[in-house]
TrEMBL record:
A Gene Ontology molecular function term of the record: hydrolase activity
Keyword annotations of the record: Chromatin regulator, Hydrolase, Repressor
Source taxon at top rank: Eukaryota
Cross-referenced SUPFAM superfamilies: Arginase/deacetylase
Record-given protein name: Histone deacetylase domain-containing protein
CDD domains: HDAC_classIV
Length: 251
């Protein structure tokens, strides 16, 4: 590719991305009686008990809503249920090659850190593991629209901060944070975004995705001695807060 053709190629890619965002069904109108709280029972991952081989609680999302409901803080009828992110939606950030790699069960098993998943047919992995993730992606993207309209919004799931455009890991298969921000730039006329990442683990996925985007400011508070120890991605954190604790969890 000649350097003279690069600007045209970049423009074509940006136009395609914009068109995908504008044609997406993930933004939709929410009745006023609904709370800006997003959740679906499909978020919860139950896969023959194999999900328990990972320390991450893959049913916590449902338990959170159940607790809020049982304690009288939440009417389940007021929860917003998102749509599943389609392939076209995901291509706003992810490459074709990355999405194709998820058609391999061994690849998915590495990303979610549950080796036995490699032995299952990919159709089952898609339904039991990746579909719940895609629903959560839809929730994260929709949350930005609701936050703009209502002043606040919460997606009970999502926050897959270890996944970047071309690489998943750490139980994160899709880059919902990056996707959410790109949708907001186009659909919500937002010019600047701040990511405040307070998870114990470094959010290396979104850090790599926005490494050269001055519109995104990243504050990341994390334990530098545990996963993912991504020293390259740390260079792209605008405000780094390293918190070292004893008895470190190293998974």
């Amino acid at each position: 590719m000649s350097s003279s053709s690069s600007p045209s190629v970049t423009t074509d890619a940006e136009t395609l991305k914009r068109n995908r965002i504008l044609s997406s069904k993930l933004y939709f109108d929410i009745p006023i009686f609904k709370l800006p709280l997003i959740y679906s029972p499909d978020y919860d991952i139950s896969f023959l008990g194999i999900e328990k081989l990972h320390p991450f609680d893959s049913s916590k999302w449902g338990r959170i809503c159940q607790f809020l409901s049982s304690e009288g803080f939440l009417d389940k009828n007021c929860i917003v249920e998102p749509l599943e992110a389609s392939k076209e939606d995901l291509l706003v950030v992810h490459s074709e090659s990355y999405l194709k790699s998820l058609q391999s069960s061994p690849n998915v098993s590495i990303i979610i850190e549950v080796p036995p998943v490699a032995l299952f047919p990919n159709c089952l992995v898609q339904r039991k593991v990746l579909y719940p993730f895609r629903k959560q992606v839809g929730g994260t993207i929709l949350a930005a629209k609701l936050a703009k309209e209502r002043g606040w919004a919460i997606n009970v799931g999502g926050g897959f901060h270890h996944c970047s455009a071309d690489e998943g890991g750490g139980f994160c298969a899709y880059a919902d944070i990056s996707l959410c921000i790109h949708y907001a730039f186009v659909q919500l006329n937002i010019s600047r975004v701040m990511i405040i990442d307070l998870d114990a683990h470094q959010g290396n996925g979104h850090e790599k995705d926005f490494s050269s985007d001055s519109r995104v400011y990243i504050l990341d508070m994390f334990n530098p001695g545990i996963y993912p120890r991504d020293y390259e991605a740390r260079r792209f954190i605008d405000q780094k807060v390293e918190v070292v604790v004893n008895n470190q969890y190293t998974s």
